[in-house]
Every structure is written in structure tokens, then in C-alpha cells.
Amino acid sequence: MGADPDANSPSPYEQNQSFNALTAWLHSLRYRQIVQVFRGLAAQRSQPIRVVEIGCAHAKLFGVLDAQFSIDYVGIELEASFAELARQRYGGRGNFQLIEGSALSALGTLASPDVVVALETLEHIPEHDVVRLIEQVAALRPSLFVCSVPVEVGPAVWAKNLGSLATGYMRHKEYSWRETWWAGLYQLDKLPPHETGHKGFDWRWLAQTIRHNLRIIQLRRFPSQLVPAALSTSVFIVAEPRA
Questions:
Q1: Which of 60, 64, 94, 149 has its CA 20 to 30 A from that of 34?
Q2: What is the pLDDT of residue 1?
Q3: Can you list the domains of the chain with their CATH numbers?
Q4: 3-state percent breakdown (helix, strand, coil) of the chain, nearest 5
Q5: Dihedral of the CA atoms 163, 167, 168, 174 (nearest 10)?
Q6: What three-state secondary structure class fits 2?
């Protein structure tokens, strides 16, 4: 199956992620970090690494990993337009598979992945479903579970939303300025309950949910480990099954 020539043009979603040099750099950090994780895995095995990605969007991760490693990849994507573009770009590759639908349903059909990945995805899933997803991942017992999520609590929210306003970016529009103020003071009870956006999301809750089911072996802060979590833009978590 050949790719549609237009399939390689940036989608609106990708254009937002590359809105300016700063946003493009920040969005690139999770891919740089996951390549480091996969280098460690690839050094330990001769067989292709079996990868499952929750919320794969346009399957950019497949393109990044397939260029450097031997992988068998399964992407799961609920949004039909994202899934279609991923198929157009990579559907002809023998090591690429796409499941269009809910990860809650799809994970139960998969067996023995080496790595389960969720990059900037779990904040867009209702929290009660995230708990079930983490439980399902733990039951699959992959070698690693890797995820990244934005920091939406603490002073980082002030910096991100003010920076968004100053540069004409769109992320601050999800919040009222009153909500930005309270989120920056860790007062999430003064915001509406988190649903499927950034507002009201607390990465610390997610980390604790992961700890209940897996063992966290790495928790990195972006853009740098030298920056405290309160001022970080996002966090990157690597976990493994408990003994």
C-alpha cells in the first residue's frame, strides 16, 4: 500500500506541536529520551522489540524507532482521523499494526509486549479509565512501561500559560486566568474536576497510580533534571513489573 503524498504534510496537530522553536524543542524531548531507553533494551536482545503504543496519534513514535531499531509495533488510536493518517504513512510496513479503538478494549487482545508506551496521552483519558489501563499494563508484564505527561500543577502552569499568551500559542485558552492562578498554587479543588484535557490534571496522582501497580525506575523532568518538578514542563516515567 503506497502512502498518499499528502500524508507526509504536517497535520494541524503536528503544526501546533511545532508552533515555534521552543514548542518544537520541548515536544522533541520525549522522543530523545525514549530513544535512550530503547538503546538499553536493544543492547540486551537480538529479537525485534515488541512495542505497544497507547494513543499513538499519527504514529510518529513508530517512525522514530523504526529508523534506529528492530521493532514490531502496534499502535492504538481512538481518533479516526489520526488513525487514518497513521495508516497512510506506515500501513505498508510489515512491522506496523494499528488498532483503531479504545485502549481499554485493545490491551486485552495483545500478548507479551516488551514495551508499552503512552506519550502525552494519559492526561487525555478520564482518570477512572487510566487506573484500569495501568492495571491492564501491569497484568501484561512488559519489560518496561514508559509514559510522559505535562505538568499542570504548580508554578509551571503560570510559566506555560503566560508563555503561551506571549507567543500567540493556544494552550492557555483551555484555562481561565483564575484557574491558572489556582493551579499554580496547587489548589486544584478550585478548578473543575479533570476530564480529558490538561486543566486539573495532576501528574503526581498518575505517578502514585503507577507505583501501586509497577515499580518506577526512572522519573525525569523536562526540560532538565536540574529544574524542580514545580517548574518543569512535563515528566517522563519509566516503570517495570514488580517481582
A1: 94
A2: 43
A3: 5-152+201-240 (3.40.50.150), 153-195 (no CATH)
A4: 50, 20, 35
A5: -10
A6: coil
